[in-house]
Amino acid sequence: MTAKIIDEWLGTCAGCEMTLLDIGDAILEILPKVEFVHSPVVMDHKYYGQTGEGTKMELPEADVGMVSGCVRTEENKEVLQEMRAKCKVLIANGACACWGGVPSLANSFTREDMLNTVYKSMRSTVPSVLPSEKVPALLDRVYAVDEVVKVDVYLPGCPTEPGVMVQALNSLLENKPFAMEEKAVCEDCPLKREKKAVAPGTVLKRTLELPAPDKERCLLEQGYFCIGPATRTGCHGGGWGGPKIPRCIAAGMPCEGCFGPIRAGASQMVDMMGALSTIGVDVKAMLDRPASFNRFVGAKARLRPR
Amino acid sequence: MAKEIVIEPVTRIEGHAKVAIQLDDQGNVADAKMHVVELRGFEKFCIGRMVEELPRITPRICGVCPWAHHLASAKATDAVFGVKIPEAARKIRELVYMAEMASDRILHFWILSGPDFVLGPTADYKDRNVFGVIKANPDVAKRVVHVRHLGTRIAQLLSGKAIHPAAAVPRK
Q1: Are residues B104 and B27 in the same domain?
Q2: A64-86 per-position pLDDT tens digit
Q3: pLDDT confidence band for B77 (50 / 70 / 90)
Q4: pLDDT value at residue A241
Q5: Which of A123, A141, B100, B164 is deepest in the core (most CB within 10 A)?
């Protein structure tokens, strides 16, 4: 028997849907075991009947629902609630669904402030009226999926990672539980840590500050903001299609935290403040703190208007 | 106005939209509009971020074409810093972008728009998609999946991360 799947995207970029394709050849082994019954990115099933004849938004029944994106509009909320009603298991797919993701950086501003900037005061666009015809209203802020409905499985990451996705899908298809390790990115980071503190009161460097960092050594110990100590590991996908190295570290960049907190409910901000203080960094001197600590987790009141 | 037909969502695209078609009393099309039903507000929340972080934030505008946003932002940041990147760096940026573009063309044709041509516009909507293409042409599908994945693998090997990259940096 095949498992019926709904894939939906709310306030999102489609990166998590692309990750599903990035599974590569192995997706051909998974596809015969599943049947997609609704997925706007690849299929033509519509909400209100195929020619708009329906009056109620309707999704088909499914065994598994995969939802990416944050809850930004009234319509996102409606789709999500209909999805929850029709799916036996709901997967929050990627950072936006899990904690709001990058779009939740908007939670540092009021909705009205954001709308005014976008439609009225951008120097690069002609000021206009706020759209009102047939567009869903924005909610007061960005919500994570589990602030609206119950979530059964969380797939972190921006985007999530093919190896993680395969593990989760196979676990679900075999009726086994899926859980990720509660370990920090540092545990899988190949850079050398000397476990030395920096000089007390050290101010963090800017990400691209010269001279360039030593490529072999821990970026944090060299004074760059790397949120690896407060972020869950797994972005290398267990070496899926590449070496088992955290993705941004492989690019010579510090971790930006897209796999979220190490444990459910933990705060990357609290954990990272602790890690920075321990090695002697002057946390108060850090630039753009709330957004740097919470780049992917701004829902659930972690970011709010100042 | 006699009747309005609203088709939602617009499918097999990146983004969220619906189409509203207005019919007159004779049942002919009087007007049609496409409504974009999403806003995340990058225009607002990029303000106040550290400029060198923007090449990592803006790719999230679109997960189908993150490299376009990554490189546009990196080039803008180059200009802010007044740096000219080394020739080798320029070539690497271009190489990854080419790999991404190869993948993207395959995605666009075979997975997004192609089903209309391969199976035809009159095919049942339940089959007129990539899964229908795979069923009808399993050997072609195998190659499509494989070759598309090669492009993203090249991007990943060169840059660490194919979707929402961090690799292009403005540095003297």
Answers
A1: no
A2: 999 999 999 999 999 999 999 99
A3: very high
A4: 61
A5: B164
Assess whether B30 and B69 both reside in one domain. no
Are residues B75 and B125 part of one domain? yes
Question: Contact A67/A80 with Cβ under 8 angstroms?
Answer: yes
Short-list A121, A283, A259, CA closest to A200: A283
Q: Are residues B68 and B117 in the same domain?
A: yes
pTM score, two decimals?
0.95
Tell me which chain A residues have a C-beta less than 8 angstroms from the C-beta of B20: 134
Same domain (yes/no): A157, A57: yes
Nearest residue, CB atoms, A206 vs list B39, B52, B149: B52
Nearest to A136 among B12, B37, B146 (CB): B37
The two tokens of residue B16 are: 């969220």
Does residue A113 lie within any of the structural domains? no
Convert the pLDDT of each residue in A228-263 to its tens digit: 999 999 999 876 666 789 999 999 999 999 999 999
Q: A-B interface: how many C-beta pairs under 8 angstroms? A: 207
Judgement on whether residues A145 and A288 belong to the same structural domain of the protein: no
Rounded CA separation A123/A114 (Å):
14
Tokens read off for B108: 């666009």
Q: Decide if B54 contacts B73 (C-beta within 8 A).
A: yes
Please tell me whether residues B18 and B77 are part of one structural domain.
Answer: no
